[in-house]
Design goal:
The chain is built from 9 helices and 12 strands. The chain has helices at 14-26, 37-46, 63-71, 87-95, 108-123, 125-134, 165-176, 184-192, 202-214; strands at residues 6-10, 30-34, 51-55, 78-82, 100-103, 138-141, 144-147, 152-154, 160-161, 224-227, 231-234, 238-239. A hairpin with a 5-residue loop joins strand 8 (152-154) and strand 9.
Length: 240
């Protein structure tokens, strides 16, 4: 990554585009702005960007669809801007591959702080790649197999279970620390690199959806267990 950060803003609201262009420029961040998906694709084809700020509600093609499309060809960090504050909407953003989300109306200072957090994490990826090359690409827990390269989960019956980006990152957080209780805040940080407030139920919903793929009976989970008032843990031995 170069010293000058390149950001692409995708938002159909001209006032928000102008606000972000001005504020990011004050922080030494070089930003470009477009208003829809077609313009976004053209910009990405012409230039390299370090991160995308993507509005959820866009004309013609919404932010979720665009995020999903980007993830098929690129790992570029994506921050979603959304006026929806429900946990289910946040989960939807994470599951299609967004790295973070910011609720409108937002404090530009918070957005800048989140951008820097994500970019610091991306800057450390080279070390993570070296570590991955030194270890197995596949881990097992119980009778399940998880491939970190293809992000495929294989059931004891040898059926490949599809995982969203958010589900994979959450499951990997459990696999990295088996039989250790992880708080909801720790899990959200591991899954998408952000903290949570006391009323954020995003992780609870994500764990619930992951259980539907892992557990025979979600009412009595055997793998992803709950410790009331503390968090969740993976009750299985992990072999690498």
């Amino acid at each position: 990554m170069t010293d000058i950060v390149e950001v692409l803003i995708v938002d159909d609201d001209a006032a928000i585009r102008d606000l972000l262009l001005t504020y990011l420029g004050d922080f030494g961040i070089r930003a470009s702005a477009v208003s829809n998906g077609a313009e976004m694709r053209q910009a990405l084809a012409e230039r390299r960007f370090d991160i995308i700020i993507l509005d959820l509600m866009l004309p013609s093609e919404d932010g979720l669809s665009l995020c999903r499309s980007i993830r098929t060809v690129s790992d570029i960090p994506i921050v979603m801007l959304t006026a929806r504050a429900e946990s289910s909407d946040k989960v939807a953003c994470l599951e299609v591959g967004a790295d973070d989300y910011v609720i409108k109306p937002f404090d530009p200072r918070e957005l800048v702080a989140r951008l820097h957090t994500i970019l610091r994490r991306v800057a450390g990826k080279s070390q993570a790649v070296v570590l991955r090359l030194q270890t197995s690409t596949q881990v097992t827990f119980g009778d399940w197999k998880l491939n970190r390269t293809t992000r495929e989960l294989t059931s004891p019956q040898r059926v490949v279970i599809p995982l969203s980006n958010g589900e994979f990152r959450l499951l990997w957080a459990f696999v990295e620390k088996p039989r250790i209780v992880l708080s909801r805040s720790e899990l959200l940080s591991a899954a998408c690199g952000r903290t949570m407030d006391a009323f954020d139920r995003t992780i609870d919903l994500m764990v619930s959806r992951l259980r539907q793929k892992l557990e025979e009976d979600v009412r009595t989970p055997q793998l992803l267990r709950t410790i009331r008032g503390e968090g969740y843990f993976l009750d299985a031995e992990v072999n690498r």
